[in-house]
């Protein structure tokens, strides 16, 4: 880390929530937010006990928290159960017949409706209890680790909640990952069981989940049992003595399964980060602090009300699916929507159809999806009635103002506030955002810290930087849902997050804070380039490129340059129908010159149909860097969504 980061973005637009929205919101004004925020930071002993009372406890906690750097504990001595908080406590009142999960399966093709299932809280509670008894029947006890490798069907959430109910620790592995990814994760966490399905649907074809599990288990002797859900009806092998069918097992159990009383710090789950370099990190989250983080942010950030229908489009294989599709939504007694398939299958209006059909009120998705929707064109959107929407959310990477404006105008019809939520697998829940009824939003800025979160932008010596000077985003003290450790590797946990700058949590993101205190994330520090002495966040240059009317998506990386240190190389996906001419490169270069300045003009622009992305939608800049430098792509490509993209990019090199 050397000099500070030069932030070049000049976005100044500001959007205030409507008076009508503010009036109905949980938090209605900046003053109300400030008061609570100050209390959360300066008087945690009055703030957190009040918040924690909104959860159901079997035994009250004794001490609020403990911080033996780098290890945090919260609500010490308390006992509770996440599944009880998500289910049982909703069964005594009017929520018992409310829809908990609304599920839409992937349609078989154009014009064919997807399957649908609605589970009320009573239904979901029963299914979870039954399946928790299945786990016990198959030898699982409190503390065991279980891998969940499933399509996005209600049973995936049922499996998670059943683990939580009996105190087994789940590790969900995204259904798009390979057998090798399964092997690494099974070994790392020492899993005894895998829960999977015969297959899952993706864009009209069947992903052979069970086959991948069979492949993986050749190298994983520790897994004694595999529970298989019948989903795609594809042919599979059943290993006698090891594999059992989910539906068969249900015949042997009752729905009577009281929730275990678990300590606040009991491990709830391990989730491996999709890190593109090195061994995946098993991020460990525990019970009380995590649940409180997910619960409170769902309530306040999404301004959740009893009658909302909440759709977070993330797969449960990612942390966003854990904290918002499942735990945060259900802990609040909300109706949560699950959709099995891809946004453009069978046609690019799948999401808008679902919003229209189920009258979704809160929609939470990722910038990469938003840019894809822009590319597919407004017509797919405008033919559906999206008037049920009242709030939109974004997560996963900085949202470029261009995409933000499209989201605001075309999807939200200028009525819906947008919450741009900054957080990480490691943070467990949203840390920086706007509260939709209380604050104005600035396109491209995540906003202000959530309650109890103390973020600062610092230089490499850890010194706080003045407004609008870019630096490193750190969090000064632990919050309830902070990860507890890297599973099995506490040393790496300390090294990775608490060593770069001593005694604070190091996020790895570059950031600046403006004079109103709003945080502007400029991307991962690895993505911050040094061009002629200026450290430039690639996200800002990308955002400028994407603001050109002919561009759908862009990724900018550095290439070693003897003169400037690093030169910028831009990979650009044009909008559909755009004719790529040699002049377009010059047009883009001068556009960037106008938007940011000459310093940000890329030395090389390459056009491409698609960018290499991880399966969670993050652009794999490491691969682009290798291509830009003209070398071979050597690194690990197992997390790449579409291998063809790479072949095409390399073939296009001139
Ligand atoms: C990035 C996803 C800007 C950031 C929840 C972070 C964001 C990493 C935002 C974590 C946002 C996530 N604005 N950047 N609203 N949200 N990021 O672990 O670089 O998959 O460090 O968690 O995504 O990614 P992860």
- Helix-strand category: alpha/beta
Distance between the termini: 33 Å
Indicate the mean pLDDT: 92
- Strand runs, count: 32
Shape estimate: globular
Sheet-strand content, in percent, reads 15-25%
Sheet with the most strands: spatial strand order: 5-4-17-16-18-19-20
Question: Which ions and ligands are bound to the chains?
Answer: 5'-O-[(S)-ethoxy(hydroxy)phosphoryl]adenosine
Major β-sheet, in short? 7 strands, mixed
Q: Count of helices?
A: 20
Rg over CA atoms: 24 Å
Point out poorly predicted stretches.
none
Helix content: 25-40%
Structure in a nutshell:
The chain is an alpha/beta fold and 654 residues long. The chain has a seven-stranded mixed beta sheet with strand order 5-4-17-16-18-19-20, sandwiched between helices. A five-stranded parallel beta sheet has the order 7-6-8-11-12, sandwiched between helices. Strands 23-24-26-27 form a four-stranded antiparallel beta sheet.
